């Protein structure tokens, strides 16, 4: 097992280890009884052993014991599942994860979708980071943060999986899922992320990178992304007012909520920590073209 970088991942690891302890205990008991039977009840003569119709203590044991084992495993599984899916703790960061054929877009929100719905409004996007099958995006988190994820998909079922979380959840069209994690202190580094649900021909290229930063570095990165998002919004507004389309760059620069026109695909790779262009559905244009094929 990878070393979990979240408190929830540590709970999953503990449940996994406990299940193996129970499995080994049952295995040792069963194999011990088999070996005992082979040694002490081996054939010693041609005389037929005494015949019995039933043995109530043994039959009660192999009926009650499995029920007890299953009940104990069920209890710990249900307890941990409830804790893993709890979203009651106030989050420090809200991120909408959009899984599409065949990449990811991470929208950093002002508040979670559930909170916005309670207030009768739409969640506001601070900035976005998007990728394509050729250029994997980078999800950036801060050490010690409680992070709330809203999962959505515009096409087919995907699965948001970060092995270092020891946890994954399906991304289902028209069915938003959500979960929260508490990132441990001292876990700054780079980790792998991927789709764990067969979602189409380029499923194997649906990769992303998780980067956990120390608080100071993360705050500087967020400030930089927000400044770039505001600059993109201003440039887009100026283009709309002047009626100018594509001022020679080959790529339109919409705002963080996908306010600009559809982007063109180029060979230039966007920086991992910069938000990539998105279309009006909050899905990068390059990925939309891939899905259209």
From TrEMBL:
Enzyme Commission code: 7.1.1.9
Residue span, Cytochrome oxidase subunit II copper A binding domain: 90-224
Biased composition (Low complexity): 230-241, 273-287
Gene3D superfamilies, A to Z: 1.10.287.90, Cupredoxins - blue copper proteins (2.60.40.420)
Membrane topology term: Multi-pass membrane protein
Entry keyword annotation includes Electron transport: yes
Subcellular location: Membrane
Cytochrome oxidase subunit II transmembrane region profile domain ranges (all copies): 1-88
Chain residue ranges for the region called Disordered: 230-293
Acidic residues biased stretches: 259-272
InterPro entries reported in the protein's UniProt record: CcO_II (IPR045187), CcO_II-like_C (IPR002429), Copper_CuA (IPR001505), Cupredoxin (IPR008972), Cyt_c_oxidase_su2 (IPR014222), Cyt_c_oxidase_su2_TM_dom (IPR011759), Cyt_c_oxidase_su2_TM_sf (IPR036257)
Residues passing through the membrane, by range: 20-39, 60-78
UniProt xrefs under NCBIfam families: CoxB
Family of the protein in this entry: Belongs to the cytochrome c oxidase subunit 2 family.
Protein name: cytochrome-c oxidase
Organism listed in the record: Streptomonospora arabica
């Amino acid at each position: 097992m990878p070393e979990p970088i979240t408190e929830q991942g540590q709970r999953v690891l503990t449940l996994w280890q406990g299940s193996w302890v129970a499995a080994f205990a049952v295995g040792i008991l069963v194999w011990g009884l088999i070996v005992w039977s082979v040694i002490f009840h081996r054939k010693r003569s041609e005389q037929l052993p005494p015949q019995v119709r039933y043995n109530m203590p043994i039959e009660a044991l192999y009926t009650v014991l499995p029920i007890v084992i299953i009940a104990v495993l069920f209890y710990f599984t249900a307890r941990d599942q409830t804790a893993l899916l709890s979203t009651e703790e106030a989050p420090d960061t809200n991120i909408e994860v959009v899984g599409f054929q065949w990449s990811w877009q991470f929208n950093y929100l002002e508040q979670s979708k559930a909170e916005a719905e309670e207030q009768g409004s739409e969640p506001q996007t601070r900035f976005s980071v998007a990728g394509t099958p050729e250029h994997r995006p980078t999800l950036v988190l801060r050490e010690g943060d409680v992070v709330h994820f809203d999962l959505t998909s515009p096409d087919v079922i995907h699965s948001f999986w970060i092995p270092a979380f020891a946890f994954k959840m399906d991304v289902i069209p028209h069915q938003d899922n959500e979960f929260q994690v508490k990132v441990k202190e001292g876990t700054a580094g780079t980790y792998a992320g991927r789709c764990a649900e067969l979602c189409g021909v380029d499923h194997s290229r649906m990769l992303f990178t998780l980067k956990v930063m120390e608080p100071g570095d993360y705050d500087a990165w967020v400030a930089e992304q927000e400044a770039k998002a505001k600059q993109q919004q201003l440039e887009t507004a100026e283009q709309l007012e002047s009626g100018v389309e594509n001022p020679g760059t080959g790529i339109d620069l919409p705002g963080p909520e996908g306010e600009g026109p559809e982007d063109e695909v180029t060979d230039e790779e966007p920086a991992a920590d910069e938000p990539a262009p998105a279309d009006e559905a909050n899905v990068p244009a390059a990925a939309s073209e891939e899905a259209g094929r």
